[in-house]
Amino acid sequence: VAHYLHNIKQKPELNAFLELFEEEAFAQADAVDKKLASGQAGKLAGMVIGLKDVLAYEGHSLQASSQILNGFKSLYTATAVQRLLAEDAIIIGRQNCDEFAMGASNENSSFGPVLNADDPTRVPGGSSGGSAVAVQADLCLASIGSDTGGSVRQPASFCGVVGLKPTYSRISRYGLIAYASSFDQIGVISKSVEDAALLLEVMAGSDEYDSTVSHRPVPAYSQLLQSDKKYKIGYIRDCFESEGLDAEVKNTILGVKDMLQEAGHQLEAVEFPYLDYIVPTYYILTTAEASSNLGRFDGVKYGYRSENATDLTSLYKKTRAEGFGPEVQRRIMLGTFVLSADYYDAYYTKAQRVRRLIKDKTDELLQHYDFLILPTAPTTAFRLEENTANPLAMYLADIFTVQASLAGVPAISIPVGRDANGLSIGLQLMTRSFEEPQLLAFSNYIL
Ligand code: GLN
């Protein structure tokens, strides 16, 4: 704990943490020491973990990096966090992120951007930017983030660390602030695949507080990391031919592909004809869900309340206009538009259908191949403010991560190289739902 607190204080400019739980973390550490001495410590004894500011932790502030939740303290603890604590993890603090997890650069936080520790003129990716930088810069051992369309994988790729998004429903979402509920999954950012496996093992599984959670038994992922199997792997040709793909990213990923082929795995090019549709489909559905989920922040129940209101309607309007940042407002407007009576069928219903096509095609490919490989992101970490004036350019940063989110399948980003500027390049692997054991074992093998 002292080591990480020291590192955090050395580099305040990274802006990765919004709040530190210093005294509590030391107290937890003391308690763990005692348990270790009596041989009763849990599986995560001594692991120092940071939480993205979207995970509820009883008695602690919870804001989703937004002003609309200013002053709000959580009344309960997320199931996933509860399970970490039960296994003696130490929670060191609350991490900066894009407001309500909406963004791909961590520039949408009301607490200011997070800087990439490899090059502070660049973004860490988003929305779990603070969580990724915290692991990158050794400010904690691992972070718990959330991934709706890439928010764990893309910042992991930009920061040279491991980012795991499990199968949709593998981890209970109870206590995770909802962005787009049919996509949201809690995920892990860590230095090693072993840590990701162990944390998943502890957090996953049945929970009476989340009606969508899977009741499948949870494998001991951390015991299943050795694999000498030869796999059948598809690489999505359309991704490698897409316009915005940086040449160094492309060559690095193709280099891994060749390396796997030489090692005896069977690699084949596959077609995925919906690449042009995945980002629009994702943004129609997630903004629709977000506009509904964010309806509860009205100045009455949680956090911030405008002082300029004169009646109930103006209380709602002013609270929301003052409390939500520009990107969140944009998405609420987009979402209410696609759900409005005149446009519902043209946008929302159609996007639901396209989501089904994308899911079916992805599942079909994964019946033939154990893994699909592709880059995590089309570029390495871009410069601060490079994409802020153009939301569409920012949305395209998600082009390779949203497929797994639309399909609900598990996916991981692992660091496989660096570009000429020394910036990290991530390889993304997808596999069939609930096949995290082979996803983790194969990632471990590649790393
Ligand atoms: N960049 C994507 C978005 O802004 C992903 C966010 C996420 O996964 N939470 O929606």
Automatic annotation (TrEMBL):
<dbReference type="InterPro" id="IPR023631">
    <property type="entry name" value="Amidase_dom"/>
</dbReference>
<comment type="function">
    <text>Allows the formation of correctly charged Gln-tRNA(Gln) through the transamidation of misacylated Glu-tRNA(Gln) in organisms which lack glutaminyl-tRNA synthetase. The reaction takes place in the presence of glutamine and ATP through an activated gamma-phospho-Glu-tRNA(Gln).</text>
</comment>
<keyword id="KW-0067">ATP-binding</keyword>
<keyword id="KW-0547">Nucleotide-binding</keyword>
<dbReference type="InterPro" id="IPR004412">
    <property type="entry name" value="GatA"/>
</dbReference>
<comment type="similarity">
    <text>Belongs to the amidase family. GatA subfamily.</text>
</comment>
<feature type="active site" description="Acyl-ester intermediate">
    <location>
        <position position="151"/>
    </location>
</feature>
<protein>
    <recommendedName>
        <fullName>Glutamyl-tRNA(Gln) amidotransferase subunit A</fullName>
        <ecNumber>6.3.5.7</ecNumber>
    </recommendedName>
</protein>
<comment type="subunit">
    <text>Heterotrimer of A, B and C subunits.</text>
</comment>
<dbReference type="GO" id="GO:0006412">
    <property type="term" value="P:translation"/>
</dbReference>
<keyword id="KW-0436">Ligase</keyword>
<dbReference type="GO" id="GO:0050567">
    <property type="term" value="F:glutaminyl-tRNA synthase (glutamine-hydrolyzing) activity"/>
</dbReference>
<dbReference type="Pfam" id="PF01425">
    <property type="entry name" value="Amidase"/>
</dbReference>
<dbReference type="GO" id="GO:0005524">
    <property type="term" value="F:ATP binding"/>
</dbReference>
<dbReference type="GO" id="GO:0016740">
    <property type="term" value="F:transferase activity"/>
</dbReference>
<feature type="domain" description="Amidase">
    <location>
        <begin position="1"/>
        <end position="440"/>
    </location>
</feature>
<feature type="active site" description="Charge relay system">
    <location>
        <position position="127"/>
    </location>
</feature>
<keyword id="KW-0648">Protein biosynthesis</keyword>
<keyword id="KW-0808">Transferase</keyword>
<dbReference type="GO" id="GO:0030956">
    <property type="term" value="C:glutamyl-tRNA(Gln) amidotransferase complex"/>
</dbReference>
<feature type="active site" description="Charge relay system">
    <location>
        <position position="52"/>
    </location>
</feature>
<dbReference type="InterPro" id="IPR000120">
    <property type="entry name" value="Amidase"/>
</dbReference>
<dbReference type="InterPro" id="IPR036928">
    <property type="entry name" value="AS_sf"/>
</dbReference>
